Amino acid sequence: MQKHPGGVQKFFMKVLFAVWELPPFFKVGGLGDVARALPADLIRMGVDIALVIPLYKAVRFDNVKKEKAGSFSIKYDGQEETIEVIKVSHPLNNFPVFFLKNKKYLDVVEHMNTWPFFNKAIIEGVKKNIFPFYPDIIHCNDVHTSLIPLIVKEEKLKIKTMVTIHNLAHQGRVNKDILEKMGINENKGNFLAWEHASKQLNMLMEAIIYADVVTTVSPTYAREIMTEEYGSGLDEVLRGKEGRVFGILNGINISRYMHHGKRRICEFVKKRVDNPDKIATDLSFYLEKKRENKKKLQKKLGFEIRDDIPLSCFVGRFDPYQKGLEILHRMIRKLDLENHQFVILGSGNVEWEERFAWFNSFYPKNISCNFTFNEELAHEIYESSDFILIPSKFEPCGLIQMLAMFFGTIPIAHRTGGLIDSIKNNHNGFLFDSYSSETLLHTYNKAVNLLLNDRKTYDVMVMAALTADFSWKKSAMEYIALYEKLYSGEY
Fold first, then answer.
1. Low-confidence ranges of the chain (pLDDT < 50)
2. Where is ADP-alpha-D-glucose bound in this sequence (predicted)?
3. pTM of this prediction?
């Protein structure tokens, strides 16, 4: 490692970052946020990086200059398939992005053949010098790129592989004849006893076994997935990888969220980013603005405009398996709703949307349910609420608690996964232990009591939330430390 003038570190590492989504071109979930932000900080720290993604029919290149970067062919399922390569520079972060185009397998997210084909295409592209460098490391992300480590080992390539698990529940079970389609002997696959009987290949398990290093999106989640409770059937495989499984907490793109803050509370947010030492002197200004925002949101939602009533929010997918909708619903039912206000923003499950809509029908002046995802409204909610409720049964990392704290909204969250790593109980938020409506209600009442009867302590918590560092720079430094160990041959 050496330093450039100005102190920028230069690492002699070339990293190919393989993902299935990347905004603004194509985005489905949180992985897209990681793919947009993390590589930008890695480049700023001296890593030579390029991204590779499928060119789906749904990809949009609005106001982005494209250039053809060549083409090549691969053999898949006994047929020669041509792949066109389109290169662009990311419009926000300027890193190179390579799109692989094949109408038969990459036009739509079909899964059974899309990901194996995409993975094989990436390796063939590397071998045929399609990318700007021969990578030292291929950084794979989730099930969509999970067969790359197997291919690298099968072909004895001098490339290190890292796989980041963003959500262990998504494992990609496919017919084991996929290996034959890729030109790999079926015996190279690893099968759990019950999966072998059903002729299924678990793609994510292959990544865990063959990757040189496995990472997850928070330190606590890295420990949790080695247990039977959170391991989704792969805990034994992960324990077998112990010593090479690491948790690195995701960050948030502060400059991106500054854009939203500038519209409403820009004076405080800008001072906080430019002059963090002046936070204390500006806190009273911020709190005044926050109360103004609360009144504006109350008016917009048709609520009674009062500062002495708690305004709490839930923002997220309506996923009953993960997001704690049942215990949230039960908790709200137990409250005297005339003395509480809730705003719900999210969608994804019609049955649970209908259950929450019942509250909206009977208590329209106290509960507002918005079954959509509207980023503008989400930021209005973060900037206006007293509390954000995050009752997730499990949470690999979570971003909404970081966004909420960035705008001074106190999280009330289940003690699990990345919520443990980002929220300090009774310091910048509240954590509850037992996954139940009773413990959620108890913790919520504790938080409300603080807001209404000990405003000074509540404001200290707001200060702690505002000063928490969730920048991607910290995360990027930890990834670079692992890259260095891979590069040096330690792993």
1. 1-8, 261-267, 269-270, 273
2. 27
3. 0.89
